[in-house]
Amino acid sequence: MSCTIEKILTDAKTLLERLREHDAAAESLVDQSAALHRRVAAMREAGTALPDQEIESQIDRICEMGEVMRKAVQVDDDQFCKIQEKLAQLELENKELRELLSISSESLQVRKETSTDTASQAIK
């Protein structure tokens, strides 16, 4: 068993190099682990944020749809009121036209009777 100082120094240098390599590998693993942990944390945050964002998006869409429906109801109400007004005007106009037609018919009837009486008196 001959142990020389050179051999011990050579073995010590080899061990030191291996320790440095292992230290670098361990440090790399720690860095990768930390990076992976950050990614997982970011993914968790993104995972919880996405549904919240999606919920917000859905709420916005529902609110927009509600607003569109309110406007549609308002337009329908306005249009219904206009139709009701027009119908009332047409009914009034129809009534007045019927009265005018009745008056005109009565007047025509009176003229016929008058002309018939005049004609019959002229014949006599």
How would you characterize this protein structure?
This protein is an all-alpha fold and 124 residues long. It is 96% helix and 0% strand. It is built from one helix and no strands. The relative contact order is 0.03. Keywords: Coiled coil. InterPro entries: SIKE. This is Suppressor of IKBKE 1.
Structural class: mainly alpha
Question: How is the biggest beta sheet arranged?
Answer: none
Per DSSP, the total helix count is 1
The shape, in one word, is rod-shaped
Order of helices and strands: H
Q: How many strand elements? A: 0
Which residues sit in consecutive blocks of at least 5 with pLDDT less than 50? Answer: none
Terminal-residue CA separation: 175 Å
What does the radius of gyration come to?
52 Å
**Mean pLDDT figure:** 80
Helicity, as a percent range: over 70%
- The share of residues in extended strands comes to under 5%
Summarize the structure.
The protein is mainly α and 124 residues long.
List the helices and strands and how they pair.
Elements: H1 5-123
Family: Belongs to the SIKE family.
Keywords: Coiled coil
Protein name: Suppressor of IKBKE 1
